[in-house]
Amino acid sequence: MKIESKNFVLMPRHLRRFNGNVVQLFDGRKGKINYPYLMVSDGNTKLPVMVERKENFQEIQMILKKEKVGYSIFAERKNKFSELKVLGKKDKGAKFCPQ
Question: Which of 21, 40, 41, 75 has the fewest CB atoms found within 10 Å of its own CB?
């Protein structure tokens, strides 16, 4: 099964293919994937977070993919304990521009 397939469940090792993409955490912070770390911006500082730890991986709410204009949601989860699922090509979700 391909990683881009709809309802594919992402694991921490799959994030290697998404270096440079933006992630949004459940507490509202955003960061960039720099495998095996997430570079999370907290105000003016950048903090490295090890993505292979289960607790840190469960903090990821959605993965945003860069488009020509803004970002599109590539994968998301409903709460911290659900699986991080790919939305699929047809069902990418709303495009938005972060502020």
Answer: 41
